[in-house]
Amino acid sequence: MKEYRHIIYEKKAKVATITLNRPKVLNALSTALLAELDQALGDAEKDENVAVIIITGAGDRAFCAGADISELQGLSPIQARDFSLMLHEYTKRMERIRKPIIAKINGFCLGGGQELAMACDFRVASDKAKFGQPEVNLGLIPGAGGTQRLTRLVGRTKAMEMAMTGETIDAHEAYGLGLLNKVVAAEELDKAVDELVHKLLSKSPVTLGIIKLAITKGIEMDLDHALYYEAECFALARATEDSKEGLQAFLEKREARFKGK
């Protein structure tokens, strides 16, 4: 396996865990780290032995506190646009991967860190986590999808407030807004993520991929087109061996044995 400098990449029991590993700078997103993250995600996507992906941050202070400010300072306007577009490609790729991605949030989740988490399919956080889009305090705006994904997750009113004031919110408020799937005590975070992973591993991986596709693509369509797209995805799911196994197992009153086909 490739050696990484800015992340830790581990695979075990059908789970790939990617740890952002720059704890001294609260796991800030440098271009080097982002490139390694993208490589690791690509490896996990192609690995047939990986069914679930977890992204977390090293240490107990931060999931990710945002972009590397020293790098941003050196960008010209054109370079800033290209940097934003690069971030969009990385986060869109996360949404295209047909495997569930869980953000395991253990501290500050700000700016680009929150944008990275929002591109994941699940977000489970410690009750000590803090969230926000503080770019406005630097005279900037969110550039990794924050103005768009945050609005889709929490609504226009709260997204406008968070982006324009730059103020942080705690994990419980983030959960109440729909930004998180679950909030637990810090010492329970590992257990909560493990429980979610166990649930996901019990499902058909091919079906999970189709669900992710239907939701991610469908939300960008008007309702009529989205519903037709859902019907096409439903037909695709019905064509799988796992669908046949799931229906048969139900009729035989036994646990389904999914194979991901």
Please describe what this structure looks like.
The protein is an alpha/beta fold and 261 residues long. It has two domains: 7-201, Alpha-Beta Complex (2-enoyl-CoA Hydratase, Chain A, domain 1), CATH 3.90.226; 205-251, Lyase 2-enoyl-coa Hydratase, Chain  A, domain 2 (Orthogonal Bundle). The protein is 49% helix and 16% strand. It is built from eleven helices and ten strands. The strands form two sheets. Strands 1-2-3-5-7-10 form a six-stranded mixed beta sheet, sandwiched between helices. The protein has a four-stranded mixed beta sheet with strand order 4-6-8-9. Helix 1 links the parallel strand 2 (15-20) and strand 3 (52-57). Helix 4 (112-118) packs across helix 5 (146-154) and helix 5 crosses helix 6 (156-165). The longest helix has 20 residues, at 77-96. It is globular, with a radius of gyration of 19 Å. The mean pLDDT is 95.
Kindly summarize this structure in a few lines.
This protein has 261 residues and is of the alpha/beta class. The protein is built from eleven helices and ten strands.
List the helices and strands and how they pair.
Elements: E1 7-12, E2 15-20, H1 31-46, E3 52-57, E4 62-64, H2 69-73, H3 77-96, E5 101-105, E6 108-110, H4 112-118, E7 122-126, E8 130-132, H5 146-154, H6 156-165, E9 169-170, H7 171-177, E10 182-184, H8 189-201, H9 205-218, H10 223-238, H11 241-251
Helix pairs in contact: 4-5, 5-6, 9-10
